[in-house]
Design a protein that fits this description.
Helix content: 40-55%
Number of strands: 5
Order of helices and strands: EHEHEHHEHHHHEHH
Number of helices: 10
Strand order of the largest sheet: 2-1-3-4-5
Oligomer: single chain
Structural class: alpha/beta
Radius of gyration: 17 Å
Strand content: 5-15%
Distance between the termini: 36 Å
Length: 203
C-alpha cells in the first residue's frame, strides 16, 4: 500500500526587527508544531533595525514561498527619513503575494502585553513606558530568553486567547480613530503561518 502523500512544506522566512521576534517565533515552533506541519518558518535577525537592512534581507530571500516581515514601528517613526524609506519599501511590494508586512506600535512587546490587558494608551519608545507596564505582568522582563517566549508569557499568567482578541481590536480602534500608535497586527502574522485560524476559514 502506498504511503499517504505528505503535505508540501512551505518555505517561509520571517524577518524581525531583532532577537525578540526570533526568540518568540522559535518558541511558537515548539508549542504549535502540529499546526506548523505544513510550514518551515526560518526566523532571521537583522544586523540593524534599519529599513536598508530590511530591504537587503527581503531581496536576499525573495525566492522563498513567503517573506514575512514583523516590524516594530517605533524604530521607523522616530526618524522621518526611515519612515519615508519604509513606506517606499511597502509600496514596492504592495501587490506582492509573498512579501507581507506586519506592524506593531511601538514594538512586539505590546503583543506580549495584550496577553494580559488591552490598551490604546500612547507609549513613547519601548524604553521606559511600555517596559514598565510589561514588567508588572512579566517580572524582570528583558529582550532575551526566556522572557520573549510564548511559554514564559503563559507561565506568568498571560492568555493567548485574550491576545488574539486584543490584537485585532487594536487595529479596528486604530482605523476608527485614524491614529498611528498602539496597535498590533501579530494576529494576521499568526494566521498566515497557521497558528491561528483565519476568520474566513471559520465561516
Amino acid at each position: 500500500m502506498a504511503r499517504p502523500k505528505q503535505p508540501e512544506r512551505k518555505q517561509i522566512v520571517i524577518i524581525g526587527d531583532g532577537k525578540t521576534e526570533s526568540i518568540y517565533v522559535d518558541s511558537l515552533k515548539a508549542v504549535f508544531k502540529d499546526k506548523l506541519l505544513g510550514y518551515n518558518p526560518k526566523p532571521l535577525i537583522p544586523k540593524h533595525s534599519s529599513v536598508a537592512e530590511l530591504r537587503k534581507l527581503i531581496e536576499a530571500n525573495i525566492n522563498y514561498d513567503k517573506v514575512l516581515c514583523v516590524v516594530d514601528m517605533d524604530t521607523k517613526l522616530r526618524d522621518m527619513k526611515e519612515m519615508t524609506e519604509y513606506q517606499k519599501l511597502k509600496q514596492k511590494y504592495r501587490t506582492s503575494k509573498n512579501v507581507i508586512f506586519y506592524e506593531t506600535h511601538p514594538c512586539t512587546e505590546l503583543w506580549f502585553y495584550y496577553h494580559f490587558q488591552y490598551t490604546t494608551s500612547e507609549f513613547g519608545l519601548f524604553e521606559p513606558d511600555l517596559k514598565r507596564q510589561l514588567e508588572r505582568k512579566i517580572s524582570g522582563y528583558e529582550k532575551k530568553l526566556p522572557f520573549c517566549t510564548h511559554q514564559h508569557i503563559i507561565k506568568c499568567g498571560g492568555n493567548f486567547d485574550s491576545a488574539i482578541v486584543n490584537g485585532p481590536r487594536s487595529i479596528d480602534s486604530r482605523d476608527a480613530d485614524e491614529r498611528n500608535y498602539t496597535y498590533s497586527e501579530m494576529v494576521l502574522f499568526l494566521e498566515e503561518i497557521g497558528v491561528v485560524e483565519k476568520l474566513d476559514d471559520k465561516k
